[in-house]
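Let us begin with a simple case.
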Amino acid sequence: MNNIYSKGSEWRKWDLHIHTPKSIVQEYGGDNENAWNSFMDVLANLPSNIKAIAITDYLFIDGYKNILTRREEISNIELIIPGIEFRLNTFSGTEHNTKRHNFHVLFNPAVSVNDIKEQLLNCLSSGYIIRDGSEWQRTPTRRSLEELGQSIKQAAPKKNSIHSKSDLQVGFDNITYKREDIIKNLEKDCFKGKYLTYVGYSEWNQSRWDQSAAEKRNLINQSDFAITCLDDISKINEQIENLKSNKLNSLVLHSSDAHSLERLGKTHLWIKADLTFEGLKQITKEPVKRVFIGEKPSILERISKSPSKYIKTFFINKKRETNIEEKWFENIKLNLNPEMIAIIGNKGNGKSALSDSIGLVGNTPNYDSFSFLNKDKFRRKKDGNKSKHFIGKIEWVSGDFDERGLNENPVETDVEKVKYIPQDYFEKLCNQEDELFEQELARVIYKQIDNKYETDNLEDLIEFLSNPRLEKIETLKIKINEINREIIDLEGLTTETKKEEILKTLHEKKRDIDSLKERIPVKKPDDKSPELLKIIERVERLRGQRKKLQEEKEKAEKQKTAIGLKKKKIENIFQKIENFKNYYAGFIADLDTDLVDSNIEEIKGKDIIALEIKNQKLNEAYSLYKNKYDEIINKLDTQNENSIAVKIINIDIEIKKLTDELDAPSKQYQKYLKEKQEWEEKINTLLGYENQPGTYKYYKKQLLYIKDDLDKDLDDKYRKRKEIVDQIYIVKEELKSIMKALFKPVSTYISENEDLNKEYPINLDVSFKLNDFEDNFFEMIYQHKIGSFREVEPGRERLRNIIESYEVNDKASFFRMIDEIISNLKMDKREGRGDKEIFIHTQIQGEVIKFYNYLFSLEYLTPFYEMKLADKSISELSPGEKGYILLIFYLFVDTDDIPLIIDQPEVNLDNQSVFELLLPCIKKAKERRQIIIVTHNPNLAVVCDAEQIIYAKIDKLKKCKVAYFSGSIENPVINEKIVAVLEGTLPAFNNRDAKYEVARMEALKRK
């Protein structure tokens, strides 16, 4: 198809208000050859971006006609539109009511000059003479106006300023027309659908609302647009906003209103359309997207700043050495629009072939999902792998080229230059498990983050930023473990069983003591011989010595326990210091690595953080206790000849020798004395002391402790544990804040543009979730024992109800949830059970410490980001809803500026969804990146006002020759292709009013 505007609608400068040297009022030096030569010369040298002009002389078409005779001189101007400027019979409302409204008519160049003259100008025979209001009946010609001007000048006083004007101008100044008369003549079939009207904004704006509000309102609303020659852009924008606020036609264009050579080309008007009258008409349908007044449209600014991000041309050709007979892709060259391109065509006619090929050359990593360039189609081996005969090439606006054989895939190291979403890849994301879908969202989010700290993905980045906090949590978990062990020991004392056990032990100890006290002493024997008395005396002295030694031994045993405890505590301190030294050494090693990675090798970790351990006094204290402890050990050592223990043994041996020399009564008495001594020692051993486990006094003190101090100490431990858990929660909140900061660009962008998806809002938030908490909880809790969580389903339901009753993202609420879980473990809270108390340890499977560490270290409390669509989480979304979110992310959230190609995004969406959901996002996306969409849905191609349509066609009768025809929507030929090919055909166009009148009428004629 021969189409000079194959790139579709492009931004170009237009000037729709230019007067020629033939205009009644002008400053070119008159209607003469020199003036015309100068005029044409300036037009021929206008800035290259000015491509269309409108010739709008007052009341006559002669100037336009004259330009046509010299058309070859201004080949730089691709479109010249004929127009006429009229003065109406309505006043502009200035102070003295001396100005009239200007009214302009622009014609399709297809309208002949003769029709304009004969069917419009020659039919306007009724005008009004301003001076006396009498009706003037003549047809406006130059001669008739000159005669009118001459007669007016003759009747005017000689000092009147009109004598300085030409007869033609005076005649023109005194003739006006009714807008209704002009419009009536334009309703003729030679003009129907081939003209546009506009008013001069300046004169319209000066009209007073209090004079004729309806007339003023109708004048602008019944015109296609207004034009201003004001060069202050900010004031033009103020004028537009003022019209909008008053609910008036706000389409205001800029023009030079050139009456002189100096004003030619002084236009700030940019229009995105084909350089045709049909293209101009499009601005009345899509004014916001197709009209720009200013220095340069933003898209042109972006292209000039990033020319390597826009595809200028795409080529597909056979390789030179190929011998394939089928034609397929021969000399394919497609100049691509920098905004939105829609590739259309019937199924199997080369749409995906084109998108796959562009994606391939653009290094897409999604080549495994190609629908055309795959092993079952164009790369099928049994057909000889046809792709090996062809090569694709991209020319970027920057002038750079990329090319690749259609049988070659990108390698992992290739930079992705286009983002291509094949249909198969898109469907896989929407229909498979949520994990793949979430990974794709994470990839898009990751791209939006500025500082990625040399990480490769979102998960690694979060881990990198979170590591210091995670290390802090590990330190706090050690404290949790320590305090939990202390709590478990104290809780073990709270049960009635424990109390009964202690009481029983006390009773047994007392019974043992009492049984010893019941022993009957042996009577001391009567007088004995002097020899026996000496022996008895000696034995008694030895027993006295033994008693003292035994008391000393008991004292030493007591000291051994007390000093040994202090010594052990200092040894624990030494171990903690050693652990910290090891941690410090590891920390310094990591810090040194980080410094090297940061190219700061001259600084060492020890230069930043130095460790100094001042343990001299601690060593002295330890030496003191150790020496004392060693002394006591020596005193009690049975291997040490000088120890108390050995001395007692020696005395016992000597007493036995002496006792053997006594008579029977004396022996009996000495036996009594020995047993008495042993009895006293046993009683002392049974009584013990308060810190000696297993003794009567120890258990008595423990009983008193349980009664008077246990609850207070447990509460204190609970409080300390809660303080540590509070610190862990705060660190977890910091982790949540890190994630929120990462997602802020995305969430902010979504919230700032919430009007684009207000019907189905997308929300991205970071919050806590209880990760696998329910399953892990019940792995450690008995459900067959009496308790709140007895039985599987009721127990799980109870836990869920508890969790759902609290907000884990609120610290106070979270702690109340933990308290209630503990309360449910300590009491049977099932209905009708009366909150019967239960010892919590009996509810826990396995080690209690493992459960407590899990519950209070908060390892299950995980910060996570969640995407919701209208309050539905990802797991609740249908494939179509997932597709919508993906498209929103690709089109709207993803701020990447490389070209985006999507193959049939509407597959999982119905037409209404496309209208309601995708339309605003596609329009937004094409403002910042080149968009290529393969589609068979008219709602995407038409409603999104695609700048370029590429129609794909394979002619299988001509050796599978592939052809691509391209152009704009307003191009009648392309417009007709759209109606013929796309699903829904005419209904989509009917919904757009008369936007595509030409194609619709042609289609109706064929039917």
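The second case is a distinct protein. As before, the sequence precedes its structure tokens.
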Amino acid sequence: MEINREHRVENLANKSIDSRALFALEAVEMGIWDIDLTDHSYWCNERCRQLCGMSSEDVWSYKQLLKSLHPTDRLRLNTRIQEALTNPAQKRFDVEFRMSSENDQTESWFYGSGQVFFDTNGNACRLTGTLQKKTESCLDQQTAVQRQVEVEQQKLVAILDVSHEFIGLAGVDLTIQYLNPEALHMLGWDNWQGKKMLDCVYIDDLPVAQKALAEIWAEGHSSLEIRFVNTRNKRPFWLHWNIAVVRDSSSDAIIGLATVSTNINERKKNELALRESEERFRAVADDSPAFVFIASPTIEIEFFNKTFLHYVGLSLHEIKAATWKQYTHPEDIQRIQVIYSESVRDKKPFTLEVRQRRALDGEYRWILWKGIPRFGCNGKLLGFMGSGIDIHEHQLTAETLKFNESRFRTLIEEAPVATCLFVGRDMIIEVANEIMIGYWGKDESVIGKPLAEAVPELIGQPFLDILDEVYTTGLTYEAKATEVQLEVNGTLGTYFFDFTYKPLRNDAGEVYAIMDMAIDATEEVLAKQALKASEERYRRLTADLELQVQQRTRQLQEFNEDLKRSNENLQRFAYVASHDLQEPLRKVQQFGSLLKNRYAANLGDGSEYIDRMQLAAERMSKLIDDLLVFSRISTHREERTVVSLPDLLQLVINDLELKILETNAQIFVGALPTVQGDRTQLGQLFQNLLSNALKFHQPERPVKIEIKASTLLFTELPPGVKPIRVSRAYQCIEVIDNGIGFDEKYLDRIFQVFQRLHGKEEFAGTGIGLAICEKVATNHGGAITASSQPGQGATFRVYLPMQ
């Protein structure tokens, strides 16, 4: 609507504008404008129209004014006025701006000022201000400043244009005012005109963006990770969105928002890949039969897989709440710390064998851990990771093996003959006793060297080839009186040895070493050679003597055959005679009993003689029975069967039940094995041993007998025990009593036939029982021995070879 001058003046007068002030302002060619915010009516004086390039007929409006402003200044002016309208504290404003003429399109600089008036309710009701064109001098000065500003702006724009960051500006209404090329590229836009800030945001993250923008006016800045969207490929991308308010330098009023943000899409992808990788790692680790761990630089546990947690019976939370020292054996803690420190220092993997306690049973078990220290790009230690397995049984086996190897080494070192061990095809001297080293004429420096290097004079002799053949075939090689050249004390000499090369095999059955045992036969060979020479000299003189020797040898063989037949006849005679003697003895006993029973009244003192006669007959019968048993054991061999010693011993105890009750004896039987043997003979062995223990007891002491068994290796046998058959191991059965005992100086006598240490009046018996025990033990390839002290009881030990 067109407003004429009269109406404007009248309107101005009605609004109480001082006419003198109005004419004064017009006199200095200053434009005046006024806006009634209650009815949205506008007014400006003629000078204001001229300055804005408007004719008298043109309708002036605020929008028309903004339209004629330079685009760069438009936002700044509008923002400043909006702040004045909404904030009574900033109701006055001053601003410089450029305005274009519609006629010639020239730009001129103007200075504008204004004030907002508020009603009693605090609402903006009126906006009044002035407009003045700047003078040439001011323009020249401002143009120079503007040029400098434009140069700096061009530099800044150039920097922004080549930046790889997302850079942009927006007004307070969130309309985008600038985006650098990189931002346009990320968004897939050709230009930013007419777009809002929220147009950049991925739809799923709009609530996050709206919340941040709502809070930024009070906070002044915000930083968050959010997804924007590329409109070309419809794909979201991650941005580290940094937003800050932009303020007018003169008024400190907020005029917009700025952002300099980093595209973190690749980092997010890497984080996602890392997270997925960690999830896969944890899944694989949890399914792994091995233990898996991740620890911090201070060895605090961050992760254990389910396998280990199940193994120790703890949750990950419980392990983290404790320290690794609490479930590690105290003796291993310092060693662990040293190994970890060395691993970090050398940046190398580590291996640990440690004992760690399980919560399930409180047992310390050996675990083998292998791991590596982890370092960041800057070389900083990030922690440790690795895996482990339970090696408890293996460790125990290794310790047993180590013990056995030590014992084997000791056996070689203390062997009474020259003994050594060669390991591997190169025949490395693993161990050699002093006798063998002495034979070689060397010192202990040969240990750890190949035989060919330690004893170089063997090169060219057959021994190295023989050793290689034994290592290849696994067959033992034995030789007697073999000649060898050895350098002893710097002198090469000829020696003769009896030796054996014995291959040793590992669990896989493969030869891994050869044991060499040698006996110096030099003196014997030389003596034989001397004897041979002597025999050669006296051959003719000894021809008749050799004939006589042959004759005597035949006679001796015949005599031996006769003696063998005689012994066999004697054994048969003893057996038959024993049977034949039993019958008259039984007659003597029977007739003695008849005489005593029928004629007791007439016998008088004769009854005592009959008793003595019957007692002697009883002893004679017992002696014959024992002789029969001894003869049967010596001449008769039953088929060997599997014999359960517990069952057999129970039968013997049942047979002796009456004697056990009479002596009030206690018999303790431990775990006994099952053996291969003659059941009858073994029964006689235990019958005699238990009978002796019951017989030779101390009257004032309760009888206690203990029977137990153990297993001994051949090397563990006592020095005096020499079994008939050599075996790797033996069952040792012990019969221990608390009886009267005996002096060990009579040890050789007690196992002989008819040998007694006590009189018949003191202890009954025939003196054959222990001889039978020894015969049974030797028949089974074993041995028997005893140990005792008078008054301290006796221990009999039977050694039977294991199959």
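Confidence is low (pLDDT under 50) at residues 1-16. The chain is about 45% helix and 25% strand.
Keep these points in mind for the review questions at the end of the chapter.
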